[in-house]
Structures are given as C-alpha cells and as structure tokens.
Amino acid sequence: MGLSANTPLDEDIFVKVLGMNWNTLDDEIIFSFTELYNYANSLPLTKRSVLKVTAKIYDPMGFLTPLTVKMKILFQELCIEKTIWDIELRGESLRKWKSFLQDLILIDCYRIPRCYFARQPVDIQLPGFSDASERAYAAVVYIRSTYSDGQVEVRLVASKSRVAPIKRQTIPRLELLGALILARLVNKLKSLGIESHTLLD
Q1: In the chain, which residues have pLDDT < 70?
Q2: DSSP per residue over 118-176, as a string?
Q3: pLDDT tens by residue, 10-45
Q4: Could you give the CA distance from residue 14 to residue 16 in angstroms, rounded to a whole number?
Q5: Model pLDDT, residue 1
Q6: 3-class SS shares of the chain: helix, strand, coil, % to 5
Q7: How far apart are CA 36 and CA 55, in angstroms?
Q8: Cα 157 to Cα 59: distance, rounded to the nearest angstrom
Q9: Is the CB of residue 124 less than 8 Å from the CB of residue 200?
Q10: For residue 93, what are the contacts with CB-CB under 8 A and spacing of at least 6?
Q11: pTM of the shown model
Q12: Closest C-alpha among 134, 156, 129 to residue 145
C-alpha cells in the first residue's frame, strides 16, 4: 500500500539516513517531494530557481535519474541559450519547468525497498545497461536474485547519468561514454561487496 501525497512522515517510523527518509517499519527508502514542490512554487520562474531546486534533490544512488536528468538537460539548455539568471522563463523552457514540477507531485513519496533479498538466494547477478541520446547518456545496474524454489527477483541497485557535452558528439561516442560510466558503476558496487556469485549448498 503506497503513501499518499498528504501522508505525514511519522518521526517514530521515518528517520533520516544520509539525507533520505527511511521507513523503519517497512524497511524502505522514501523520497518525499511535497516540501520541494512548495519551495519551487515559491520561487520566481527563472534560471536561478531551476538551479536551486535541482541542487536540493539528494539522490546518491541514482534512484531518481529519469527525473533529475530532465533538470540537468533543462539547465544546460538555459546555459547554451545564455539565459540571464533572473529573467523569467518563457516558451518551451517554461513549459519544461512546469512539467518538472508536475512530475514532483506525481511521484511524491516514491518508495524503494532497502533490502535486496527476501531470503537467502542461491545465485546473484548484476546485469547492467547503458544508452545514449543526443542530450544525455546513462547507465543502470540491477541485482537479479535466484532462489532455491526457482523464484527470480530483480531490483534496482544504482544508476548514473550525464548530460551530453555542449560540443556536439556523435551517438556512438556518447554510447561509449555511457559504457564507461557503467563500467565505473559496476566496479564501485563490487568494491562495496555487491557482485555476482553462485552460492553452493
């Protein structure tokens, strides 16, 4: 059962861990955006506000990459267009900014299970994927767990994204950059002790 946008974060159940809300009852990480949405709406519709709001989103594991990459792209566009910091946004830039604010409400109280395994798996794999477009490139790693009864579970571990360089690059080169951040992400996860292996009884 999910949380509604108006659900209060009970201090006895929800605690702050590394800047994120941890639901100690269901053992889930919760991203709540109601405060951020209200803060964003209190700001003028300017390039400076875009940067302020983007900087307030703390997502070290990349769970919110589909959301945050849109803001990175928007801010880069404003920089390319040499938009003045305190001039009100107009046209397509304003539409994208309002669309982002709407997304904050749509995914309010986004929940991520903190535990990777329901029980002891017999096999663990770390499938990773990367891709690129003209605007950005990204990588994502999942953990695929197989249990003794044949059940398989797949959960998101982490992701990374980058906006494409301002100097135009070919898609194959951007795909190589995506593969690079994927390799670095996998190596980082392995250094934390998360890696593929098979457990023998």
Answers
A1: 1-12, 19, 196-201
A2: SS--SEEE--EEEEE-SSEEEEEEEEEEE-TTS-EEEEEEEEEEEEPPSS---HHHHHH
A3: 566 888 777 678 888 888 888 888 889 999 999 999
A4: 7
A5: 33
A6: 35, 25, 40
A7: 11
A8: 12
A9: no
A10: 74, 77, 78, 81, 83
A11: 0.82
A12: 156
